[in-house]
Amino acid sequence: MTSVAKRALGWLTFAIRLDALFLRSAVVVAFHRVHDGDPGGLSISRAMFERHCRFFKRHFDVVPLREIVTRLESQRSVDGLLAITFDDGYRDNFANARPVLEALELPATFFVVSDWIGTDTWPWWDRQQGVRHPWMTWDQVRVLNERGFDIGAHTRTHADLGRIHGTPAREEIVGGRVEIERQIGRRVDLFAFPYGRRDNMTESNRALVKAAGFRCCCSCFGGLAGDTTDPFRLQRIAVTPWYESPHHLGAAMLREAGPSVKREGRCSEISAAIGY
């Protein structure tokens, strides 16, 4: 899609004043880095992150991820809810994202790779781009927890759970939770699997996540959550620089919500304009 088309799509969403009730579903967004001056696909600038957060606050009921999970467990309505999440545990989450979240009084969940916290581990995707970003320390993770943010597990070493099985997979899933709980002194029951594509999680490992005492298993390949969504198949929308504005992201959410919007018989002219 061209920049002009993306801006036009964003304008359309803004023009119709995206309303969370219009979506008839819940949205879970995933960020990785909030960092200026990095062209990598995982980074959002501080200014753009704040724009996204203000957009979320204006159009949604922003709640902790665990609130959405609790409602899904009892098949209660999740209409209009949005949860903010972060993956991996980059230090800029603490330095750059946390102040914005606190200023806007927005909750968030931070999924951390337990063996990387407080280390100088250089993941392959950052090496590939020739950039290096530090990880949070355990003290910073504890501060997030103490300030009311949720800490979730993201395996011990960012393992691909579509490739490993049995004991190694169990050690990654359970080991990450145990270490985080030891460090923060609080139960950890939210889980997001690394890489987040469909082929990065097997059914046997999803069963291990459930058996380990987690309440959800989050992917990252797009999609929304409805009242009957399985919390162990909870989809998230990754927020990347591909979205040129919050309104462009909002248009993508409308596209995801297309079938439910149609069922409600709402705004057929908008559906046609966006191209559902």
Could you write a compact summary of the structure shown?
With 276 residues, this protein is an alpha/beta fold.
The count of domains is 1
Q: Count the beta strands.
A: 8
Helix content: 40-55%
CATH class: Alpha Beta
Instruction: Please state the overall shape, judged from the principal axes of the Cα atoms.
Output: globular
CATH fold name, please? TIM Barrel
The number of helices is 12
Q: Gyration radius, to the nearest Å? A: 18 Å
Mean pLDDT: 87
What's the assembly state of these chains? single chain
The CATH homology group name: Glycoside hydrolase/deacetylase
Strand content: 5-15%
CATH architecture: Alpha-Beta Barrel
Written as H for each helix and E for each strand, in order along the chain, the element string is: HHEEEHEHEHEHHEHHEHHH
* Biggest sheet descriptor: 6 strands, parallel
Question: Would you write up a description of this structure?
Answer:
This protein has 276 residues and is of the alpha/beta class. The protein has a single domain, classed as TIM Barrel, CATH 3.20.20. Helices cover 44% and strands 11% of the residues. It is built from twelve helices and eight strands. Strands 1, 4, 5, 6, 7 and 8 form a six-stranded parallel beta sheet that branches. Strands 2-3 form a two-stranded parallel sheet.
Task: List its traits.
single chain; globular; alpha/beta; TIM Barrel; six-stranded parallel sheet; 276 residues; disordered C terminus; two-stranded parallel sheet
